Amino acid sequence: MMQSRRTALGYASVLFVGIVAACSSSSTTGGGGDTADGGPTDGTDGSVVVPGDGGGKADSGPIIPCKTGKDCPSGVCSGKGTCLDPTSTDGVKNGTETDIDCGGTAPTKAPACQDAKACAIGADCKDLVCTDLMDGKGLRCQAPTSTDGVKNGNETGVDCGGMGNPQCANGQGCAARTDCTSGVCVPPEGGAGLVCTAPTPADGMQDGTETDVDCGGAAAPACIDTLKCLVGGDCTSKVCKNLGAGLRCQPPTSGDGVTNGTETDIDCGGGAPTNAPACIAGKNCLASADCKSTGCSYANKCTITKSCVPHYGGDSCGTGEPGMMGSVNEECCATALVTADKGTVNLGKYQVTSGRMRTFLTAVKGDVRTFIQGERAKNPTLNGATMNASWDLYLPSAMTGCEQDGSCAVNEISDYAMFEDMSGLHPDLPAYVGLYSSAYRQLGGTVFHGQGTTLQGCRLDAPGTHSYWMDKTTQTNYFGDNQAEFSQQVYDEKPMNCVPYLMAQAFCIWDGGRLETFPEWQAAWGAGTYPWGASPQPKPQKSATFNAYRYPTATDAILRSHLGDMAYDQSLIPAVGQSIEYGDYTYSYEYPNLGTYDYIVFLDSPGRVKGRGPAGHADVLGPMMEVTSTGSFSADPRTASAYWTANGSWEGHGYSKNVIWTNFSLTNKYGKQSMRCAYPTLP
Question: What tens digit of pLDDT does each residue of 164-180 get?
């Protein structure tokens, strides 16, 4: 009995020691002892260990024996009777999984869940959408849509791209150009993958709104000829037509209805390749050759006639000073039809401005004589003007005169020497030598040396005036009187005065016409007592200057408002039927205000007063008489006479529709006389 007891105790001791040893062995990382079922004791077979008793690592512990998965934290019991760690393939929802073997994070690192599986966040789902549809099933993975705010399904960007989805905006991902609203899917600069970007006209492909490679559409340059297009704006030629090869850009022609090629306006101007005709007045131009009139203005517009290319004196005619409120200005070459002794002609609405005369003299470099001789060779009728060849020698040959530039011929009448009679020195010359061959002399001083009758108020010292502006040096060298008091702009806007018939006629011929005839001026006046009808009659003013009392500073209404005002000069107030607004007469106009001596201010720029003839011709009454093509002509221009009209004048000459001034020769001029051109035809 005693022995049996020891044996039993000994077996128990051995079993206890074995259990302790087993426990001790399983709590170490390097132990190799077997368990009762012969498996490892360190949990490397996937069995679950429990926390140790301090003898090993903090996460180590004994293997948990099990019979079914219910016995295990992971819900998985191995065939060896031990609990296993959770995995993403064990067919059980365990670890951090949100559904069986999907969702969650470590330790299982299960794949994302399919649609309808349970989830906690979007990352748990293959389509990144985890939503509670309020159907009692809780959070579930949902099928992708194009409004779920994430990139999923076949989308290339967030809710865009791929079949069945909207196209992507710039910056979103793409797989093909059809994924993008821009039509451009390219690698980002310095990055990988493909993104939608704005099309560029240099990417070597037809994209965006382009109609051909890198051209056409809203953002790319226009396409050259033969390339594809949809509308004219896609083409450099602005012409898109289908001539058998689909819509293609076509070469420019002079009949395609658009401005293209070298054209300056629609089917006109420019040169090759269209070879379009010259443009009519008002059309765009770059050079004189672009225009039928050969006049391309400072504003790049074709003028009615070629003298109106400058601003001041070119398009400054009409009521009001340019730029002033209420002014209505137009081209000074504007015309209106009249019918008289020469049939129906285009008669200038305005007297010729000094700026237009300056344009002429600049173009011919002052050599009016050579111009007329050359024009006569091309056009013997000179547009119907009377300009005898025997008069040519009386025309200027240079701006400064041939005696100054050395171009005088031996037998040429000139101001070579300051003598009235050079017959003793040059027996071959007439006794009246001393004609000034300078254009400046013709427009601002005497035509013949020593013959002051040709001056007739054409000076600047009071109370004279000439409207052709000259710089200080020229004015001093030629006339020695006072300098111009105002800017060239003021003078160029004024009507040309102090111009002899020969110079006036030469200008009109150069401009494409001729001087008006006396009957043509009468036709512009019309049938009424005054050009504008029976009333009102212009009111003469005093010859002194009153500044603010004059039109345009003062008006009829303003003056009449002071009737009975003893502080106001009652003699300046127009009576009923009288007006200072309709005719510049007897100092009734003043702009700018009179300075020290230059009476140029009393010449209203053409059209400033309101009075108009029935066809719209301005200044038929006042401010100056006009030299005409009608006259009593002879071979000697000093004895020939051109008729002047009786417009009246700013100095107070009488006005009448039927009075003819006949006492001036073709070499004479006057400070109260201007000119107007007639054009049998216009360009």
Answer: 999 999 999 999 989 99
Nearest to 82 by CA among 119, 48, 34, 126: 48
Return the SS3 of 543. coil
How far apart CA 584 and CA 590 sit, in angstroms, is 9
* Residue 495, token pair as written in the block: 């009507």
CA distances from 208 to 18, 172, 214, 222 (A): 82, 16, 9, 14
State whether residue 404 is helix, strand or coil. helix
How far, in Å, CA of 222 to CA of 255, rounded? 20
The answer to whether 539 and 638 are in contact (CB under 8 A) is: no
Residue 461 CB partners (closer than 8 Å, separation 6+): 481, 482, 597
| DSSP labels, 556-600 | HHHHHTTTT-TTS-GGGSPPTTEESSS---SS-B-SS---SS-GG
Would you state the structure tokens that stand for residue 61, as one six-digit string?
């512990």
Alpha-carbon dihedral sign for residues 323, 326, 330, 334: negative
Count of C-beta atoms within a 10 Å radius of residue 662? 12
**Is the pTM of the predicted complex or chain greater than 0.90?**
no
Give the ranges where 481-545 is alpha helix by DSSP (H).
Answer: 488-493, 501-510, 518-525
- Number of other CB atoms surrounding residue 209 within 10 Å: 15
CA distance 488 to 138: 92
Structure confidence by residue, pLDDT tens digits, 216-257:
999 899 999 999 999 999 999 999 999 999 999 999 999 999
Contact 619, 495 (CB under 8 A): yes
Distance CA 170, CA 640 (A): 85
Tokens found for residue 298: 């400072």
